[in-house]
């Protein structure tokens, strides 16, 4: 929301911008953090739900994302919107839960299979596996950042902000067909970039 400009002689009730709230939270007024995240709660919840497909898991991921957002508020550089920054944190938390869920499934399967107790130890992440898991957490974010700017803007509007094709086209001043083409190319770019990094993890999860 743009800061409002009160007319002469009129007292305007203006809501602070995201950046203003961020600065005040950084200064120590943590009570305003609730106002900041309340603006985007529904949209961030939808981000988590699209990944996890479970209401309870999405809520848990979002609560942890809110805690991380507060503890890392000094890292918010303003290069993207506050919503986009929080959406990245939320996605990382959601993907972390997917990995945890798959490990739990493997442990349960191994524990229920007689003679396969040694597989229990395979489900415990080694330092190398933990390092790879952290890489996966950052793979998506870094890949989005590597998108060409015109593709990144479209991807952010359609996938993160959940704008319609028409809304994105209007905001960028291009045709809807152009938006569809750029989104398709952005997805193909991400697929090519993420596939080599995700393949070992997928093979390990399927083992």
Mind sketching the topology for me?
Layout: H1 18-26, H2 33-38, H3 41-52, H4 55-71, H5 82-112, H6 119-122, H7 127-146, H8 149-160, H9 165-172, H10 176-206
Helix pairs in contact: 3-4, 3-5, 4-5, 5-7, 7-10, 8-10, 9-10
Q: How would you characterize the overall build of this protein?
A:
This protein is mainly α. The chain folds into 2 domains: 12-91, Orthogonal Bundle (Rna Polymerase Sigma Factor, Chain: A); 125-207, Arc Repressor Mutant, subunit A. Helix content is 72%, strand content 0%. The protein has 10 helices and no strands. It has helices at 18-26, 33-38, 41-52, 55-71, 82-112, 119-122, 127-146, 149-160, 165-172, 176-206. Helix 3 packs parallel to helix 5 and helix 5 runs antiparallel to helix 7 (127-146). The protein is globular. The chain starts with 17 loop residues before the first helix and ends with a helix. Mean pLDDT is 75; it is low at 1-12, 114-125 and 201-207.
Element pattern in H and E: HHHHHHHHHH
Q: Which stretches of 5+ consecutive residues score pLDDT under 50?
A: 1-12, 114-125, 201-207
Q: Proportion of β residues?
A: under 5%
The first-level CATH class name of the largest domain: Mainly Alpha
Number of DSSP strands?
0
- Give me the secondary-structure category: mainly alpha
CATH topology of the largest domain: Arc Repressor Mutant, subunit A
Please give the count of helices. 10
CATH H-level superfamily title of the largest domain = Winged helix-like DNA-binding domain superfamily/Winged helix DNA-binding domain
Q: How would you classify the quaternary structure?
A: single chain
What do the pLDDT scores average to?
75
The rounded Rg comes to 21 Å
- N-to-C span: 49 Å
> How many domain units?
2
The rough form would be described as globular
**Biggest sheet statistics:** none
């Amino acid at each position: 929301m743009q800061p409002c400009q009160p007319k002469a002689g009129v007292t305007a009730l203006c809501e602070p911008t995201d950046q203003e709230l961020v600065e005040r939270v950084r200064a120590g007024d943590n009570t305003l953090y609730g106002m900041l995240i309340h603006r985007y709660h529904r949209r961030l919840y939808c981000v988590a739900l699209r990944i996890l497909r479970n209401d309870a898991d999405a809520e848990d991921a979002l609560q942890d994302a809110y805690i991380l957002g507060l503890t890392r508020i000094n890292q918010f550089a303003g290069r993207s919107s506050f919503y986009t920054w929080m959406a990245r944190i939320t996605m990382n938390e959601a993907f972390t839960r997917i990995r945890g869920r798959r490990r739990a499934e493997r442990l349960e399967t191994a524990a229920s299979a007689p003679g396969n107790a040694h597989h229990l130890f395979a489900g415990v992440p080694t330092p190398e596996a933990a390092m790879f898991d952290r890489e996966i957490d950052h793979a998506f974010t870094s890949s989005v950042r590597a998108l060409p700017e015109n593709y990144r803007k479209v991807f952010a509007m359609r996938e993160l902000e959940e704008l319609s094709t028409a809304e994105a086209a209007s905001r960028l001043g291009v045709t809807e067909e152009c938006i569809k083409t750029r989104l398709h190319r952005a997805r193909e770019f991400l697929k090519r970039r993420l596939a080599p990094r995700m393949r070992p993890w997928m093979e390990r999860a399927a083992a």
